[in-house]
Amino acid sequence: MIRCHELTVAFGSKAVLDRFSLDIPERGVTALSGPSGCGKTTLLRVLAGLERPQGGTVSGAAPDQTAILFQEDRLLPWRTVEQHLTDVLPGERWGEVPALLSLAELEGEEKSFPSALSGGMGRRLALARCLALDARLYLLDEPFAGVDLPRALRILERLNALPAPVLLVSHEPAILARASATLTLDGPPLRLSS
């Protein structure tokens, strides 16, 4: 189990996390829902080691065992779909590219550049690249933005079957309903909604 214990993060006088605690199951998708600005992204950044909390601890997954999908795709325009994956995979794992493309429903796009992809396809490529990192914890910030709902639900089912836990942020009711667990949050400071 991955445990956040009494995490505290403040920016100036604004507390974003104030002794926030959360246990993340060892498998399945835990979806976080809540209003913009309540602290969800800050929580993901702390778990990824990109934001240092002023207090509290995270145990069960070190930052170097964590993969994060940001709200922005951050694709390289000069790299093909396939190269985006081989860039993060060690050479002995390049054989996994077809499975990653299949998971993200991008078969047949191996040689395409990001400029030839729709917004939803770019998002799915960014997700496949994140999943290629073979992490102990996956943090996904709005992974299905711009992805049609039937496709997003199929991909979500595949995420639920991963051997590592997934913590994702979404506002889409159908995604929240199909996650292994859903937490409704409020804030700031971030807290479970009553």
Keywords summarizing the entry:
single chain, 194 residues, alpha/beta, Rossmann fold
Walk me through what this model shows.
The protein is of the alpha/beta class and about 190 residues long. Helices cover about 25% and strands about 25% of the residues. The chain has helices spanning about 40-45, 80-85, 95-105, 120-130, 150-160, 175-180, and strands spanning about 1-10, 15-25, 30-35, 55-60, 65-70, 135-140, 165-170, 180-185, 190. A 6-stranded mixed beta sheet has the order 5-6-7-3-8-9, sandwiched between helices. Strands 2-1-4 form a 3-stranded antiparallel beta sheet, with helices on one face. A hairpin with a 2-residue loop joins strand 1 (about 1-10) and strand 2 (about 15-25). The longest helix is centred in the middle third of the chain and has 13 residues, at about 120-130. The mean pLDDT is about 95.
